[in-house]
Amino acid sequence: MNSIHEYMFSLMLMPVLLALSAFFSCSETALFSLSPEAARRLREHRRIDELLTVLHKDPSGLLTAILFGNLVVNVLFFCTGAEAVGRLAENRGGWFEAFGGALVLLAVILFGEIIPKTVGITHPSGVLHLTAAPLRGWFYFTRPFRLFIRWLLERFGLHDGIAAGVKNYLTPGELKELLDAVQHEPGFGSHEKEILEDIVNLPDVRVREVMVPRVKVLRKPLDADRRELLEEARRNEYSHVLIYRDKDDDPLGYVSIRDLYMDRGQTDSLESFIHPLVFVPETKRADALLSDFMTHDWQMAAVVDEYGGLAGVVTIEDLLAEVVGDFEPESVTEIQRLDEVTYRLDGQLPIRAWRELFTGFIPGQEKDTLAFDTLGGFIISLLGRMPCPGDSVSVRNLQLTVETMHHRRIGTVLLSLNEPEVQA
Fold first, then answer.
1. Which side of the chain, N or C, has fewer Cβ within a 10 Å radius?
2. Tens digit of pLDDT for each residue in 220-265?
C-alpha cells in the first residue's frame, strides 16, 4: 500500500483550490447582486470604487475573468481530487473510488458554490471589502486571455451577437412585477406605485390622448388687440395663445401670456413675443415627445392629424401630468360620484382613463379598433349622429346619458349602473 506521504501534496492543495473556488463564486454573486444604493456607499472605499469602475466600463470582461478563474480552479480541484482518490482506492475496491469521487463533487457543490453564493447574496458589501483588491488584480492578470477570447469570437463573428444578446434592461412587464412585489415595503405607498406604473405605461400613450384639443386652444391673428387678448386669457385661464397670420390652423407660433403681462404694455405688436412652434403627429408616443421636450428645451408643440390639420397643442406640463397627475386642481371635476350607481363624467374624459375605471364592458378586440379618444367621441360613435341633451346609449349594463352640450361638444354625461339582466 502506498504511504499517505506520497499524495500529501494533493491533499494539501485541495482545500486551497476549494477556497479559491469559493472566492470566485462569492465575489461574482456579491458584485452582480449589489444594489445601486449600496454601490454608491461602497464607492467611498478606493479599492471597491476601482472595481466598480471596472464593472461599469467592462462588465463582460470582468465576468469573463471571474468565470475563467472559477473554471480553472474547479478543474484543478477535480483533477487533484481524482488523483488522490485513485491512490487511496488502491487495494480497497471500486466502491471506495466511487465514494471518494462523490465526496469531491459534493465538496465543490456545497463549499465552492452554494455556501459562497449564499454569503455573497446576503452580505455583498462585506464580501467586496475582502475580495475587491485580489479580484481587480486577477482581472488585469487575465487580460491577455480575455483579449485572445475576444479576438477568437470576432474572427468567427460571434462577439457582436453575444454583446447584442446581453440583456441589461428590464421590460415593462418585468418592472410591473417588481412594483407589485415591493408595493408593501415601508415608504413605498400606493401613490408611488401609481406614479411608477404611469411611467412604465407612458410608451403606450399617444400624444392625441394627452393634448389639449383644438377647440380648447386660444388662437388669435397677428394683428389682434392686445388688451382684448389678455382679457380673454384671464377670463378663461389661458396660459398660451397660438398666433396665426391668415389661417387659424396654420399658426406662426405661440405667445406666453406671462410674457405679455411682464412687458406691461410697452410693446404693442405681438410678433416680438412669438415663440417658435414645433409640429408633431398625433400618433407620436408620449414618452418620445417628453424626451424631445427635455432634450431641446421645448415648451409647447402643435399636434397635427393625418391630413396635416391642427388637432391641438401639447405642453410639457400635459406630458408630466400624465405621470404625476395635474399640477393644479381642475375647475370641473372629470368624475363626480352622485350615488352608489350614478356618476357624472366630463365628456372630454379620455376613453383610456374611463376604460381603466370601468373595466370589463368593452371587449378586448373592440378596444383595439376604437377610433376615438374621449368619452364624448365614444357616445357619438355609438349614436352615429350629433347628440342632444337627454340622448342615451347602453353598453352592457351601463347607461350613458348626455346631460349637457357645449356647442357641438358633449359637456357632461350621466353614467348609471343598471342591474344585469338574469338569463332565464
1. C
2. 998 888 888 888 888 888 888 999 988 888 898 999 888 887 776 6
